[in-house]
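**Backbone description:**
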Amino acid sequence: MEPIKDVREISHIAYGFMASKALFAALHLDLFTRLAAGPKTLEELARETAIVANRLRTLLTACVSLGLLEKTNGGFRNAPACQAYLVGTSPTYFGDYYRLQIDRQVFSTFVHIDRALRGERVDFYGLMNDAAEADNFSRAQHSGSLGAAHVLAKLVDLGGYERLLDVGGGTGAFTTTLCARYPKLTATIIDFPTVRHVAEQMIKDAGLADRIAYRPGNALTTEWPEGQDVVLMSYLLSAIAEDNARALITRAFQVLRPDGRLILHDFMTNDDRTGPAPAALWLLANVLMDPDAPGLTPEWLSQLVTDGGFTDISVTDVIPSITKVLIARKPAYRRS
């Protein structure tokens, strides 16, 4: 990214949250789903949303200015991307991830970033102790993770493996995707107890209840089942302190069989830590989860995994500019 030279570029960053909230407001009003069948007038949308027309017109104008909606003769319609990803009935619907997790949880927690940078613990995951908040978080995270899960499933070869352990696996977006792709694979997910009922429903909906088990607990303290062929951690190491990350790599090595695979999917910036911006901002967000969370790079994570005894390390993009996957192997014999 080139250094900015104009005050207007600073303003664009400073005002960025306004565009986010306009998108979230439209999602909470279900505007994109209401426009799924075609254009509607301001009056029609005002009746359906029960929002006074002049207020709604202000929101619609903002959405048009951002490219989320298009103005037609006397009405409004979805932009192509919004039609594909923000309509509730679309198979590629992504709206709940933005509406429930990014707006209701990440956005509201981000106001405490100054405190987190000073080392205070904001306790982002304290919401997981509330059943309703955990439910919202889990369903939104599942929706947001499926795309990355399908990409990851194409990047790793788990043919011939039978036992997968998904540490901090949430509702199982990655596990169900991998098990669907590899019929011989069975799996165990470890995550918070409040996530369990959502996870088990997602697993059941995927038709995989006979192959995926859920073990409630904390990834750092709960016992891990041994004899695993694959250990997966997604979006986990970037959200915990460096010492805890090292401990999890050690535990993964211990439970894996010789020649087993370690798969780490997470936010990572470039090794020179100059970007890309989306990954850098997500790593900043993770300071809210743990002030001592490391800023992951491929080089740093590769060294952590090497120190843990793993070999044959490769790193590949999953979501370009946001996430990467590191894949490593436990050798038959650990080097002295």
Observations:
- The first helix runs from residue 7 to 14.
- The beta strands are 69-72, 75-78, 163-167, 186-191, 212-216, 228-234, 256-267, 311-319, 323-329.
